[in-house]
Amino acid sequence: MRALLILFAAFFLMGQRDPVLVPEVSQHEVQVRQGFTGTELLLFGAVLDPSGRAGQGYDIVVVLKGPAEPIRLREKERFLGIWANAGSTDFRSVPSFFAVASSRPIERIVDQKTAAIYEFGLRYIQLSPSGSFDPDEQLRFAEGLVDLKQRQGLYKEDMRGVQITGNVLYQARIELPSNVTTGTYTAETFAVTQGRVIASAVAEVDVRKVGMERRVEYFSQDYGLLYGLMAVLISVLMGWGAGRLFARL
Question: Sheet of 82-95: strands edge to edge?
């Protein structure tokens, strides 16, 4: 049914010269409850050429990004047998989640300049580092940050993750892990032909906490000092209780 609605909307918009790209997401709201183990998003849609016929020779690239946040990345070095903080750098705008899926490997779709403009891949993420220092050091810290996010399951790419049916319909599946940040996620879809982006569209997904997790989040934001004192008190009581328990054993 959704596929038919997409096709109908695409045909309805065929009065314009540019190709029509109509994206959709399986869930526009992801609810994070206690025991949340992650979920899978299905991003799908259709692309048609200006004449209303099925698109020919289009590639599709989907970029899903979570809310941006500032991050300070520190580097640790071993000194006299212990690990100590060494260099550090700040990044002003780091996507909390970043995933790219494409119908073919990016290097076969666009050149590096175009890939960098549209962030078609982990190597092209615009992290906005602050401060002035050696470009090689800047690159090393950026690569370290991306590697850390990958190991946390928050950054991923699948260069054959988009399936195109009949040169019209496309779909991609992207996993959201359990440790995702809440907020508004943007799913940007791009239609590419002959190395040029000829259509793009954006859909949004709202990831939010519900139930007890939501109330705790509100409490921590509205009553930060009281929340901190309660957290310390609970930790002290748990430590005291564990000490008494082990003393009796």
Answer: 68-79, 82-95, 129-130
All structural domains of the chain with their residue ranges: 2-205, 211-249
Predicted model pTM: 0.74
Question: Rounded to whole angstroms, how far apart are CA atoms 172 and 164?
Answer: 9
CA distances from 20 to 9, 185, 200 (A): 9, 23, 9
- Summarised one tens digit per residue, pLDDT across range 157-186 is 999 999 998 878 899 999 999 999 999 999
Strands 98-102 and 68-79 turn out to be unpaired
Sign for the pseudo-dihedral over CA of 158, 163, 168, 171: negative
Place of tokens 């705008």: 93
User: Burial code of 84-111, b = ≥16 C-beta within 10 A, e = fewer?
Assistant: eeeeebebeebbbbbbbbbbeebeebbe
What pLDDT does residue 136 have?
A: 76
User: What DSSP line would sit under 136-173, residue for residue?
Assistant: HHHHHHHHHHHHHHHHTTSEEEETT-EEEETTTEEEEE
Distance CA 155, CA 16 (A): 36
State the Rg of the chain over Cα: 23
Element (H, E) at 101: strand 98-102
Cα gap 38→123, rounded to integer Å: 25
> Could you identify the residue written with the tokens 């004192």?
229
Phi, psi (5° rounding) for residue 47? -135, 130
pLDDT score of 53 more than 60: no
